[in-house]
């Protein structure tokens, strides 16, 4: 049995979730191949070859794979899938875009967002916003799986796998990447940061998020937000943590002015240490917090920043 991992990358470098996905695949106890499809993507392929547990990297290099668009990529994966027992990708925006199309074209059911591998056909995945863990078994001949990256520690970097260049599939011409609007930030990426400082509706305005930026800068942290803060226009929606936002599991998560609705907890309760600052002692966030501070954030956060400054 062999698993095909679909690498997420920007042609120059691999996204870290790929290493977590390989860690999940290693639990299957099968041979592992990694598909790097991109445009001038040899640097990403070389990084994939260095990941522990990888037996072979398949590199498909063509202009029409540049943006990782699902249509062309899924067709390539499907054309090679019969040689594999498993096809895995991270449960990121990228994986969630590509793999359902692959599963549909292979006429198999997708197993989404796994957090544990119990056997090559049996997995654990959260349902009901993370309140229930379901054990699911797939009898499909090819198991198409997305992996919750935060549930698996990234595989190491001691690999020396060969890179095989494969013929790209055709450009189906169904979609074209016209432009990409990226948020440029000197802070760490939200899903990769070791510390995340998140703000909620309690911040009252986008302007007040500057307070959290000052705290995040002291800690080298990324900034996240609740959906209420995003919907109120305080911050862009790629800040959103939760069921319909990003899933994070940093070593330290500081929730400021966030009530702790289950949809928010679904995105951060795997964090190693949770600190909550909220003026309402009954706020549900305190039920998951390791350290809770019942205080007005506009007083507590400046005090925290000045204490850290010392
Ligand atoms: C299908 C669905 C999906 C959803 N997905 C998500 C998701 O992905 N992520 C997400 O976050 N939510 C999500 N939600 C929304 C979620 O249910 C909550 O509405 C949202 O998380 C609330 O955000 P909040 O805690 O910032 O706001 P509120 O619930 O309004 O809480 C604000 C908190 O700030 C505190 N506060 C106010 N002023 C201060 C102060 N001065 N000092 C200290 N504390 C203060 C208050 O005590 C309160 O606890 C989803 C909802 C649905 C129905």
UniProtKB/TrEMBL annotation:
Residues 3-181 form the Electron transfer flavoprotein alpha/beta-subunit N-terminal domain. GO terms for biological process: fatty acid beta-oxidation using acyl-CoA dehydrogenase. Its cofactor is FAD. One of its GO terms (molecular function) is flavin adenine dinucleotide binding. This is Electron transfer flavoprotein subunit alpha. InterPro entries: DHS-like_NAD/FAD-binding_dom (IPR029035), ETF_a/b_N (IPR014730), ETF_a/FixB (IPR001308), ETF_alpha_N (IPR033947), ETF_asu_C (IPR014731), ETF_asu_C_CS (IPR018206), Rossmann-like_a/b/a_fold (IPR014729). It comes from Pseudogulbenkiania ferrooxidans 2002. Binds 1 FAD per dimer.
């Amino acid at each position: 049995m062999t698993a095909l991992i679909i690498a997420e990358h920007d042609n120059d470098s691999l996204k870290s979730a790929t290493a977590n996905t390989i860690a999940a695949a290693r639990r299957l106890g099968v041979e592992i191949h990694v598909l790097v499809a991109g445009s001038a993507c040899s640097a990403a392929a070389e990084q994939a070859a260095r990941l522990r547990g990888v037996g072979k990297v398949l590199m498909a290099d063509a202009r029409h794979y540049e943006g990782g668009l699902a249509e062309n990529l899924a067709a390539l994966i499907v054309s090679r899938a019969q040689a594999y027992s498993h096809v895995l990708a991270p449960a990121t925006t990228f994986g969630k875009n590509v793999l359902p199309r692959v599963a549909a074209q292979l006429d198999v059911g997708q197993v989404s967002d796994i957090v544990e591998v119990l056997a090559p056909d049996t997995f654990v995945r959260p349902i009901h916003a993370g309140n229930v863990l379901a054990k699911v078994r797939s009898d499909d001949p090819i198991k198409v799986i997305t992996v919750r990256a935060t549930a698996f520690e990234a595989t190491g970097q001691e690999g020396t796998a060969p890179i095989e260049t494969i013929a790209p599939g055709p450009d189906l011409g169904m979609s074209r990447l016209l432009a990409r609007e990226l948020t440029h930030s000197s802070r760490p990426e939200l899903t990769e940061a070791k510390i995340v400082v998140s703000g909620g509706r309690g911040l009252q305005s986008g302007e007040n998020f500057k307070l959290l930026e000052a705290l995040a800068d002291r800690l080298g942290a990324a900034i996240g937000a609740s959906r209420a803060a995003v919907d109120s226009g305080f911050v862009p929606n790629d800040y959103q943590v939760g069921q319909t936002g990003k899933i994070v599991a940093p070593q330290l998560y500081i929730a400021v002015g966030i009530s702790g609705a289950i949809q928010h907890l679904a995105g951060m309760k795997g964090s190693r240490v949770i600190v909550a600052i909220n003026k309402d002692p009954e706020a549900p966030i305190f039920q998951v917090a390791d350290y809770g501070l019942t205080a007005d954030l506009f007083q507590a956060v400046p005090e925290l920043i000045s204490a850290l400054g010392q």
